[in-house]
Amino acid sequence: MIAREWKCRVPEAHSEGFTGYLYETGIKDSSATPGFLGAQIFRRSLAAKIELTLITYWDNLEAIKAFAGNDISQARLYPEDEAYQLEPDLSVQHYEVIEHQFSAEQRG
């Protein structure tokens, strides 16, 4: 399994709207690609901004190429991103997942 990590920053005022937009673009397109296994979005506050980290999980690098194109190190951005004053990372990181375990019990 391969994890693909992408980060961006948005002004606090756009955080909720951009998160919904991220579901409609990146998550929707990813999940429609064969080999997509799942996704997580992380959020943290910075000075007057919110940083969002999107991690998607894939069967293999070929599945990622089907989503991202041949240069899988480049972020896939969308034309409407500018409306959210997005500060995107232009590259992504890939990791081989060597352990993944979640409790069947929900905590929180």
Any descriptors?
5 strands, Antibiotic biosynthesis monooxygenase, monooxygenase, 108 residues, 2 helices, Alpha-Beta Plaits, five-stranded antiparallel β-sheet
Your description of this structure?
Keywords: Monooxygenase, Oxidoreductase. The chain is α+β, with helices and mostly antiparallel strands and 108 residues long. The protein has one domain (2-96): Alpha-Beta Plaits (2-Layer Sandwich). The protein is built from 2 helices and 5 strands. Strands 1, 2, 3, 4 and 5 form a 5-stranded antiparallel β-sheet that branches. The longest helix has 17 residues, at 15-31. The chain is globular, with a radius of gyration of 14 Å. The mean pLDDT is 92.
Q: Main sheet?
A: 5 strands, antiparallel
What is the CATH third-level topology name? Alpha-Beta Plaits
Provide the β-strand percentage band: 25-35%
Write the element-wise H/E pattern from the N-terminal end onward: EHEEHEE
CATH class descriptor: Alpha Beta
**What is the annotated CATH architecture?**
2-Layer Sandwich
What share of the residues lie within helices? 10-25%
Structural class: alpha+beta
Shape: globular
Low-confidence stretches: none
Number of helices: 2
Number of strands: 5
User: Kindly, what is the distance between the CA atoms of the first and last residues, rounded to a whole number of angstroms?
Assistant: 27 Å
* Total domain modules: 1
Q: What's the pLDDT, averaged over the residues?
A: 92
Radius of gyration: 14 Å
